Structures are given as C-alpha cells and as structure tokens.
C-alpha cells in the first residue's frame, strides 16, 4: 500500500526521462554505458550537487553526518549497497554472504578484480583492517559503535569510566583487533558475533563498513588530504568551505558506475541561496526545498518539470526528557500527542509535503508495518483533555529546537493546537545551534520537550528502534527504558527470518507507543529539484542524487 | 606627517591584542559543546570527543588557549577548523569576495547617497527633500533580509534583470544587487549627512567670499562647497567599509555569496574561536588602516588640518 | 585636527531656512527677554508643521503602546490554523498570519516592545557614545588615546557574535518576562553600537573645543565639567541627533534581523520585528503578512526622524 504511492512520485519523471533519452540510445545502465558514443556531454560535463561542508575529514569510519556522508558514499563501495529505488539491500563488492545456521557467523566472499583508486587491489584484509581501525577506541572514530555486535568489540573499545565529561581519559583497551574478524584468504573473511545477528547484512551498505586502502594506514594525514576510495567516484580536489570535486573512476567494477564525467558537491551559504541557484541553473541538484519554497508550493511552479518529491528514510518527532520529573506522567505525554492535529499541520504549514506518522519508522522502510501508534497518534481533543486533566500537569509546555532549519512554524502551530485543546500555555524556545541542543541532550540536562528528527543509517526498521528506544541505545537520549521493549527488540534482532523480525519489530513499536517516550509527527518526504542541465534524475531513499543514473541533458 | 603615521600604526598593537583577546574569550563563552553537533542526531562517540578536545586544547583554560593561539598567529599560522581545514586557506578564499562586495556596497551608497544629499542640500526643504527622506528611510526601516529576499525575488527570479545568486567565482556583475542591499542601510545616513553638511557650508564665509569674487556657480559648488562638505561623509564611508565587510552575514546567506560573513557566523555557532578571531583580526586591521588613510585625506581636502 | 563642518559656520539667514521658518525665527527673537537655548528651541518648534505631525504620530504610538486593549478586542496570541494566511477582511483588518493569528491585534500589541527596543537602544547608545566621545574630544591626549582604542576594539567585534553572547548569557540566567527580554536586546544593541556615536561626538567636540565660546568660558575660569556639559554638549548635539533618529529606526529593524537569526525577541514579547521575521518565508504567497508590520515600522521610523530633524534645526543656534 505504500510503494505505489511512492512509485507514482518518482517513477513518473523517470519514465518521461527514459522516453527522451531513448533517442540517444544510451540508457541501458549496464555499467559500461558511460562513455557511450551518443552523448558527449556526459564525457566532459560536471554535475553540481548541493551539499554541506563535511564536519570531519573524509574517512568513512569517522563520518556519520549527512554532509560528509554524501561524498563518502560516492567514493566508497562496501560489501552491500541499497537499490536506489526500492532501498532493498543487494550485494555490491560481496560475491556471496553466507550466514551460519545459528546466526552467529557470517562469511563474506569478495568479487575479484576490484581496485582502489590508487590501483591497489581491494582485499579481505582491507575490510578487516578498516573495521578494526574504526572500532579501536583510542582512534576516536565516530562509527565505532557500528561494530558493537562483533565478538571482541568489548576488548578494543572500553567505556570511559567517568563519562565523556570526566577528567580521566578512557583506559587503553587490552586488544587492538576484534577477535570476531578473521581473514581466510585474499577474497574471503569471516565475522563472528557475540550473539546471533543475521540482520547485520542489511546494515552493511552504510559507509562505515567500507574498506580502506593500505596507504591509509601508512599515512592517515595524507589520506585525509587526498582520500582514496574504491567506489564509483574518485577524489579530485577540495576547496575548503566551497566544494569537493570527484570524477568517474573508469576502472570501477560495480553496477553503480556513473555516466557523467565529474560530480561537484557544492556547499552554498544557505538553503535559500541553493534554491535560487537551482532556479537560476547555477546548481544542478538540490535535495531539500527551503521553507520559503514550500510556502504555497512555489517550488512546483518555479521548477516546473524539474522537481519531484520522494519518500526517504526519515521521521520527525518530539521527545520528552524522561529524566525530568515534569514529564513522568504517561497521560501527559499521550495527551500532548493526541492534542496535535498532524493532518492540519501537514496540510497548512507544510502544504501537503509531509505525511502524518502512524508509527515509529518511516513508511519507506522495507518490511515496515504502519499503524503501530494507532489512536494515540490521531487528533482527539476530548480524549486528550481527559488525559491531560488526569496527569495533573501545571506550568507551561515548552518545546525547543534549533532556530535555523524552518522548525519554528510547525512548533508554533503545534503549540497553538496544544493550547487550544488542553488550555495550557505552550511556547517555542529557539536555540541558535544544533550543537547547543545536542550538548544539553547529551548531558541529560534538557528541561524542555525537544525536536528529534531521525534519518536512518540503513533501510531497516531496527535502525529506527534499537538505537533510540532500547535501554542504553547509542541514540537513546531521553533515558527511555522498558525491559519488555528491550526483550522484544532482542527477540526481533535474532529472529530466524527477516519476515519474523519485521513482525516482532512491529510489536515492539506498539509497546513503545503505549509509553510514548517520543511523539511521532510526520514522515519527511524530500522535495527535490534540478537544473535544466540534467536528465534522468532520481533520488535515493537516503536523500542523495542517484549518481549512477543521472545524465547531462 | 611621518611621525603621525608611525604613531597611528603603533596604536594598532593594543587594538590588535585587545580585539583578539576579547573575541577569543567571547567565542569561548558561546554556549554549546563544539563537538556535540558533529555527529548527526546521536551523541558523539566519547573517544572522538576526547580526541578532539585534546587536539584543540579545549581542556585548557581560555587564557592558555588564547596565548597558544596568539603564539601561532604571530608566526603566521591561523590554525585549523574543527573539521581540519586550514583557517588561512579559508580566509584567502573568502576575503577577496567580501572586500569586493563591501567596495561595491560602499560605492553604491556613496553614489546614490551623496547625489541625493547634494540634491536636497542645495534645494532646501520641499518635495524632493521629502521624497528622498521617505525613500531612504523606507530602506532602513525594512530589515536587510526582507530587502534581500524582495530584490532577489523581483529582480532576480521574476524579471531576470540581475543574477539571483552569486556563483563561487563571484563576478562584479553578480555582486551588484547584493551590494545594493548591503549598502541600502547606510544610504539614508550618507544622504542625510551630505545634506546637513552642504546646508551648513552654504552659509559659510568662504562661500560668501567666493560668491562675492564673482566665481561661476559651478565652480563654487563643485570646488568650495563639495570639498568642504566631504569630510564627515568620507569619515562615515570609511567606517562603513570596514563595517560592511564583516557585517554581511545575512546578505551573503541570501545570495549565496562565499564571503567571510557566513564563515564568521558558522564559526561562532561552532565555537571555533580560532576561525572567528583570525577572520575578525584581519577585518579590524583593514578597518583601522582605512581610517588612517581617511584621516590623512582630511589634510588634502582641508588645508587647515595639519598633522605634526 | 578640526572638523570643518562645524568649524566653518556663518550666521543665520541662509535660503536653506524656508520663509515661514525664517519669519518664525525672527518673531521669537523680538521679545528681547533673555531665554535659554531650550525654551528658545521650543518656541521655534511648536510652529513647525513637520514637528507637529511627527509629535502627533509618536504620541498616538505611545498611547497604543500603553493601552493596546483600547484598540483591539482580539487576542493577539490565539492561533487557529483553519484561517491561516487569510487576507484582510472585516473580521481582521490586516488579515491573519500563518498561524491564524490576527495581524492587526499583533501589530497593536507589538507597538510597546518595538518602541521600547528602538527608543531604549537609541538613547543608551547615544548616551554612552556622547559621554565617552565628549570626554575623549575635550581632554585629548592619553584619555583620548585610551578611549579611542577601547572604541576600536568594540568596533571590531562582529555584531552577531556580541549579540549571541550577551543574549545567551541573559537567557541562561533564566530571564523570561517580556520586559526583561526587551532590555536584553536593548543592552546588546547599545553595547555594540556606541563606538560610531562616540566617533561622531568626538570629532564634534574636538572642533568645538577650538571655538571662541569655549575659549571664552575657559578664560572665565569655568570648570571642565561645566564647559563640557553646559557649553559644548548643546553645540555638539546636532550631528548626533541626526544619527540617533536614524539609529532608532534601524534598531527596530535590526531587532527583526536578530529574530531572524533566532536571538531577538520571542514570545511573549512579540514585536513588529518578530512579525516581519515570521513573514519572510511567505513574501511571495502572502505579502500582507509582511506589508502591514513593515508599513507601520516605516511610518514610525519616519515620525522619529522628522522629529529629530526639527529638533536639530531648532537647537542649532546657527540655523536660526
């Protein structure tokens, strides 16, 4: 029921593009299509893509934010990648992935003949070394927790005894390598988990699991200056604060080889400027419309015939800092959820460009069942008021968010509904920077309800639940803990089949909704636009331009 | 003259130290953890935070941090941002663009402001005077971001007369509209200042003398009146040039200009004291040098002024 | 150095003063009774039509600011998305904003905060700048050197940096009432804007110091304070008053920019600036959201500048 709607949005422009390009006779997408005789513009042209300055050097294991992630994604290809349309995982560099019967071991066989951009072959060793490097605590890599389930992780990455803020540094771990990783031969390696984890396969498309060339370990500083990947795009140059240029890697063996010669990731000063640049044909692709373009759906007329909307793996929500006694009452939390009229806000404030949420994951996730939140996520003034009166909450409801990013409008609107429905004062408390909010959240000092968006790392319901709602999860920021939910999630993680896992995750979601630690608000489909220079434009579910498909018109 | 210039240059030193220190401390006082926002919607890996804290001396007191920074700066090292970019490179890339923008803005405000000022100053009260007053005031009473968006939409997107945004090459033509937006704030003040100055000087003795000598009107106005009225206007324009270079945060954001305003703003929010201080120090030096040049120009414009 | 704008002045009677003003000026002078500068100015002012119009507008705004409930019965903070962005009608004179709030009611209630920000910040800026500028200009030497360096340091501070620090420092101290929010903004604006006022005052003071009346006062043995505040201040006010009135208007507008950056006023202190800032994404779809607050802002600024202009002309003895 969800796919057709999504297909309608994206496949339509794609289909028209196909009709146009079929004259050129070069749209087969067979991987060797690049450089076809019919289209010389592709061979020389550059596609400029909206981006933001990477927060860290372009090392895959140290990149978890979208600005750098977009570029790292283009430069590296791991064992698995995701279908740009359905977001189903498929083998990329892995020839074969074999899971043992007990789900505790996974053996990877690599395709032969793949090389890094510097010409050295990609071997099993490159994966194992890269993963060990990322997981090793003292290296301070942001992606370390992605290897949590691998046996021996607890020997290479020790928790800081007095917390990150404490004066003592984390102790040096006893081992430098995880015991669960084993190179069998040049093209085979085996991973052993501390508990069965068959779903690991689906996560592997995330760039943190990329291999690193030998040159990285020899001289990391040089690598940071000129990163060497193994993906379809090769690093060319970087202008600090302005752009990163990559070119097609002609020796690339994967299926997602690019058709155009160069891709430039540009970092305009603001989303508004980026939008105007796309209208002006100075920027070729913008993945999110700024609020000023969504107002009155101006983007549809400004960019007629060169814009579209696609669902992505993203959900907007509001979280309660549960460690603050003010928010202890479940009745209060449910009352707030039911006092918000998601229909009305998505229609007026977002002009229909958002979709009311019915559960704790985005509807774009394969295998996700909607409706876990049920009536609790539907506007119901009477019930909300009843619950609110029962909760005995006094004072002002305060909702906070970073001020940039167009959040003020919907928070104000939600506040208006809360006031009108519950008769309680409600206000928006803006904060300048995302970092400032994060700091308070990390330190567990938040005293206001806060906005908590989530863009999934990989297309799996698990990624919307485990990190956020499981006790001690890597993004469990509000202190939510329910042993029954933990048990259900653990059961789902080690379920024998993917179908069974999906059913169990849905049950877990239903249980979470009853506790309402966070209020799901709406799916964030992304409205994107492109310049008249492009054709064959489509967006992947992780909000990136499909670089293997795009061509220059 | 030479001693005067030397003294002025020496005065730069306390201002340099005072400004760098004040800015460094202020950025340090910006709330928020600089590394907390670097990991998307999740808490950062503690090991990552520990490594970064150590790398950027964030565990030292602000004074130690400042002196470490100042030491590097005096050796010509501007330091690097938290994302590992050399601040010197960023400045070298963005500074020329901001200077270009500020020059255009000051040129526009000078041409329009002075012209309007002369016109109203010579004519005295009346319809033209009020028209100029109202239209320049209209510009200052509307916030920059509104003027910016309006012009961008009307002249850039709808009519297509000017480019709506600025590319990374930042050509002069692309900067005209942003320059106007930036300069519009001060235009009103320049025109008022010119008007007042001219109105006052019109009744000065030297004007009467020139008139009595039977000099042609063109010469009286062009040489005697304008030259003597120029000083306050010039002072203001000089001040404004320095001001506009760093104060273009909003304008740069709207038109996508890769200048230093956006760099300053982002670095403030990220608590990158190194970047903010490096950029602003250069601004202050430029500002003070421009003022020195203008003070020296006084002597050229008005022979009564002597520096010794 | 001297500033010739003020140094080279002649007596009155220029064609710059209109016939009406000229006649008035002559009329007040005939009584022969010794009058102070200020009462003289007042006599001059109350015959100027521009001054009267400006005063009426400002008085009206003050009444609106003090008693907003006299002018509208609508609740400025009631939100109703079903009437989002409706255009002006008989229900709502100025229409409704994105949140379905009555724009007219918001503009009426916003008068108080906007005026407070503009007037407050302009007064503080001029007072700080004028005092420091006068002292620097009169004493010169080391005093001037020190004060000028301090001003240069402050001038070098990026405005946004200063504003973020100051406004955040206050916020984390838990200040939350509307009046306190406004005062925070006033404080931040004036602390960061005084150097320009100081420079203007300083150059005026330097040139005034060399004028005969100051020399005469000094020869008569007047104290430094008396010379500064009794003789120099009134004569140096003209340039800074022009600056102040424009400053006042631009402060009301700058406050909108602060709101735009997320550090300005916010609920419950809803000003015109906040309204303008809120309207910015809807310029193309619902221009009335911007038009009404911006229009009121312009009229207000205009009124203050006209007032300042008239006062300046009246105060400047050379123009009379």
From TrEMBL, chain B:
Cited PROSITE patterns: ABC_TM1
Keyword flag Transmembrane helix: yes
SUPFAM superfamilies: MetI-like (SSF161098)
Cellular localisation: Cell membrane
GO process annotations (BP): transmembrane transport
Major location (coarse): membrane
Pfam families recorded: BPD_transp_1, BPD_transp_1_N
Name of the molecule in the record: ABC transporter permease
Species per Swiss-Prot/TrEMBL record: Actinophytocola xinjiangensis
Automatic annotation (TrEMBL), chain C:
Position of the signal peptide: none
SUPFAM superfamilies: MetI-like
Translocase is among the record's keywords: no
Primary location group: membrane
GO cellular component: plasma membrane
Alphabetical GO biological process terms: transmembrane transport
Keyword Transmembrane included in the entry's annotation: yes
Organism domain of life: Bacteria
Keywords: Cell membrane, Membrane, Transmembrane, Transmembrane helix, Transport
Bilayer topology: Multi-pass membrane protein
Subcellular locations according to the entry: Cell membrane
Every ABC transmembrane type-1 domain range: 111-308
Transmembrane segments: 50-71, 113-138, 150-171, 177-197, 240-265, 285-311
Entry's family note: Belongs to the binding-protein-dependent transport system permease family.
Protein name per Swiss-Prot or TrEMBL: Peptide ABC transporter permease
């Amino acid at each position: 029921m969800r796919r057709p709607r999504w297909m309608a949005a994206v496949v339509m422009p794609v289909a028209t593009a196909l009709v146009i390009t079929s004259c050129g006779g070069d749209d087969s997408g067979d991987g060797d299509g690049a450089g076809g005789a019919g289209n010389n513009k592709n061979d020389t042209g550059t596609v400029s893509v909206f981006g933001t300055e990477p927060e860290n050097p372009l090392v895959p294991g140290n990149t978890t934010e979208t600005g750098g992630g977009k570029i790292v994604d283009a430069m590296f290809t791991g064992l698995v990648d995701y279908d740009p349309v359905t977001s189903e995982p498929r083998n990329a560099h892995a020839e074969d992935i074999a899971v043992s019967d007990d789900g505790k071991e996974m053996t990877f066989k690599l395709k032969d003949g793949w090389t890094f951009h510097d010409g050295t072959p990609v071997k099993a060793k490159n994966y194992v070394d890269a993963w060990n490097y990322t997981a090793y605590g003292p290296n301070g890599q942001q992606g370390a927790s992605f290897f949590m389930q691998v046996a021996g992780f607890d020997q290479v990455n020790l928790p800081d005894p007095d917390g990150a803020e404490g004066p003592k540094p984390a102790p040096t771990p006893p081992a430098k390598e995880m015991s669960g990783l084993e190179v069998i031969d040049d093209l085979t390696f085996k991973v052993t988990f501390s508990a069965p984890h068959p779903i690991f396969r689906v996560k592997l498309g995330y760039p943190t699991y990329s291999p690193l060339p030998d040159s990285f370990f020899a001289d990391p500083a040089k690598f940071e200056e000129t990163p060497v990947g193994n993906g379809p795009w090769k690093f060319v140059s970087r202008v600090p604060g302005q752009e990163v240029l990559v070119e097609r890697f002609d020796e690339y063996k994967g299926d997602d080889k690019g058709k155009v010669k160069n891709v430039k990731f540009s970092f305009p000063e603001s989303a508004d400027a980026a939008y105007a640049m796309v209208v002006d044909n100075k920027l070729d692709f913008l993945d999110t419309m700024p609020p000023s373009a969504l107002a009155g759906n101006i983007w549809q007329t400004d960019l007629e015939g060169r814009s579209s909307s696609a669902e992505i793996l993203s959900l907007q929500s509001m979280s309660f800092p549960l460690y603050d006694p003010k928010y202890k009452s479940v009745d209060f939390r449910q009352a707030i959820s039911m006092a918000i009229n998601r229909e009305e806000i998505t229609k007026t404030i977002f002009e229909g460009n958002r979709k009311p949420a019915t559960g704790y994951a985005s509807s774009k996730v394969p295998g996700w069942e909607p409706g876990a939140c049920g009536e609790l996520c539907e506007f119901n003034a009477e019930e909300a008021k009843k619950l609110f009166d029962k909760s005995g909450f006094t004072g002002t409801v305060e909702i906070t968010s970073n001020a940039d990013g167009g959040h003020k409008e919907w928070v104000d609107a939600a506040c208006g509904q809360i006031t009108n429905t519950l008769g309680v004062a409600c206000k928006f408390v803006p904060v300048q920077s995302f970092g400032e909010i994060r700091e308070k959240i990390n330190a567990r000092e938040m005293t206001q309800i806060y906005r908590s968006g989530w863009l999934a790392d990989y297309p799996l319901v698990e990624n919307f639940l485990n990190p956020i709602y499981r006790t001690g999860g890597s993004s469990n920021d509000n202190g939510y803990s329910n042993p029954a939910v933990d048990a259900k999630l653990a059961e789902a993680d080690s379920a024998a089949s993917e179908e069974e896992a999906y059913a169990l995750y849905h049950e877990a979601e239903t249980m979470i909704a009853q506790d309402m630690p966070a209020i799901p608000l709406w799916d964030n489909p992304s409205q994107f636009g492109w310049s008249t220079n492009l054709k064959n434009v489509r967006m992947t579910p992780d909000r990136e331009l499909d670089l293997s498909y795009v061509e220059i018109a | 003259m030479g001693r005067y210039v030397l003294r002025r240059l020496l005065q730069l030193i306390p201002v340099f130290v005072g400004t760098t220190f004040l800015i460094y401390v202020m950025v340090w006082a910006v709330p928020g953890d600089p590394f907390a926002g670097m990991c998307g919607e999740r808490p950062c890996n503690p090991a990552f935070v520990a490594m970064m804290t150590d790398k950027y001396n964030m565990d030292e007191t602000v004074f130690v941090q400042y002196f470490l920074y100042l030491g590097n700066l005096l050796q010509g090292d501007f330091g690097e941002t938290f994302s590992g970019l050399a601040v010197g490179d960023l400045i070298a890339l963005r500074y020329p663009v901001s200077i270009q923008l500020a020059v255009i803005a000051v040129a526009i405000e000078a041409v329009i402001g002075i012209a309007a000022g002369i016109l109203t100053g010579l004519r005295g009260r009346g319809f033209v005077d009020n028209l100029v007053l109202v239209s320049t005031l209209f510009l200052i009473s509307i916030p920059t971001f509104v003027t910016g968006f309006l012009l961008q939409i009307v002249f850039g997107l709808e009519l297509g007369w000017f480019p709506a945004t600025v590319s990374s090459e930042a050509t002069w033509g692309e900067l005209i509209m942003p320059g106007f937006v930036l300069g519009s704030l001060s235009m009103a003040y320049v025109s008022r200042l010119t008007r007042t100055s001219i109105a006052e000087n019109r009744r000065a003795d030297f004007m009467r003398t020139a008139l009595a000598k039977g000099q042609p009107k063109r010469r009286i106005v062009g040489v005697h009146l304008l030259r003597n009225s120029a000083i306050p206007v010039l002072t203001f324009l000089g001040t404004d040039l320095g001001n506009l270079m760093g104060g273009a945060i909003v304008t740069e954001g709207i038109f996508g200009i890769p200048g230093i305003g956006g760099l300053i703003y982002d670095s403030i929010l990220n608590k990158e004291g190194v970047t903010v201080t490096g950029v602003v120090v250069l601004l202050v030096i430029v500002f003070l040098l421009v003022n020195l040049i203008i003070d020296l120009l006084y002597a050229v414009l008005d022979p009564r002024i002597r520096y010794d | 150095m001297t500033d010739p704008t003020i140094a080279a002045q002649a007596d009155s009677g220029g064609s710059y003063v209109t016939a009406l003003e000229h006649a008035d000026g002559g009329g007040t002078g005939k009584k022969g009774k010794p009058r102070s500068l200020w009462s003289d100015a007042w006599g001059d002012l109350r015959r100027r039509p521009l001054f009267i119009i400006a005063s009426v507008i400002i008085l009206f705004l003050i009444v609106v600011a003090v008693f907003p409930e006299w002018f509208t019965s609508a609740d400025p903070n009631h939100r109703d998305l079903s009437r989002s962005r409706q255009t002006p009608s008989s229900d709502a004179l100025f229409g409704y904003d994105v949140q379905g709030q009555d724009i007219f009611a918001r503009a009426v209630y916003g008068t108080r905060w906007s005026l407070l920000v503009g007037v407050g910040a302009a007064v503080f800026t001029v007072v700080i700048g004028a005092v420091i500028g006068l002292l620097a200009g009169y004493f010169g030497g080391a005093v001037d050197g020190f004060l000028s360096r301090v001003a240069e340091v402050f001038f070098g501070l990026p405005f946004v940096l200063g504003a973020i620090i100051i406004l955040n420092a206050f916020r984390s101290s838990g200040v939350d009432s509307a009046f306190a929010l406004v005062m925070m903004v006033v404080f931040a604006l004036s602390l960061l804007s005084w150097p320009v006022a100081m420079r203007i005052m300083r150059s005026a003071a330097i040139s005034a110091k060399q004028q005969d009346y100051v020399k005469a006062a000094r020869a008569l043995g007047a104290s430094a304070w008396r010379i500064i505040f009794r003789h120099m201040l009134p004569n140096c006010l003209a340039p800074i008053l022009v600056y102040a009135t424009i400053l006042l208007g631009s402060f009301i507008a700058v406050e909108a920019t602060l709101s735009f950056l997320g550090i300005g006023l916010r609920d419950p202190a809803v000003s015109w600036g906040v309204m303008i800032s809120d309207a910015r994404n809807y310029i193309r779809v619902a221009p009335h959201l911007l038009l009404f607050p911006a229009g009121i802002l312009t009229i207000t600024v205009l009124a203050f500048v006209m007032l300042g202009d008239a006062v300046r002309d009246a105060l400047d003895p050379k123009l009379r």
